[in-house]
Design goal:
This protein is of the alpha+beta class. The protein has helices at about 15-20, 50-60, 75-80, 90-100, 105-120; strands spanning about 25, 30-35, 40-45, 65-70, 125. The chain has one domain (about 15-125): Arc Repressor Mutant, subunit A, CATH 1.10.10. Helices cover about 45% and strands about 15% of the residues. Strand 2 and strand 3 form a beta hairpin. The protein is flat and about 50 Å long. The termini are far apart.
Length: about 130
């Protein structure tokens, strides 16, 4: 029966592998500096294939895909600007912890959660 199907296991990476990865911004995401010093991201909403076909069927042919904006706070804006494609996750954590005077464990927890949230929205990828 379909109710008892086993779910496919996702490939997971170890902590060391995650810290050695380089977070890279998605090229399709546009971002701007606001006068307040914060960063605002604008991106196209990722729709599931089923919802995408419904959207295309009921919208006009010239309709753009739905866009979302996300305004990052001060710390998120700082981390976003560090995502230049040359720094690893561990480098970002060390720099963030030194700049804010917090433990590397606390910085690692905060930054990895932030990067995971950005990854789920398709705004970054790990190389």
């Amino acid at each position: 029966m379909a109710l008892f199907r086993k779910h496919k296991e996702r490939s997971t990476i170890t902590r060391e592998q995650a810290l050695s990865c380089t977070p890279v911004r998605n090229e399709t995401v546009s971002w701007t500096h606001l006068p307040s010093g914060l960063v605002q991201l604008e991106y196209v909403l990722m729709l599931k294939p089923f919802l995408l076909t419904i959207f295309e069927r009921f919208s006009s042919s010239q309709a753009e895909k739905p866009k979302r904006t996300l305004e990052l706070d001060e710390l998120g804006s700082e981390v976003w600007q560090m995502l230049d494609g040359s720094r690893t996750t561990a480098d970002i954590i060390k720099e963030f912890a030194a700049h804010h005077g917090i433990s590397s464990h606390e910085a690692e927890h905060s930054i990895t959660l932030f990067l995971r949230a950005l990854g789920k929205r398709g705004l970054i990828a790990l190389r």
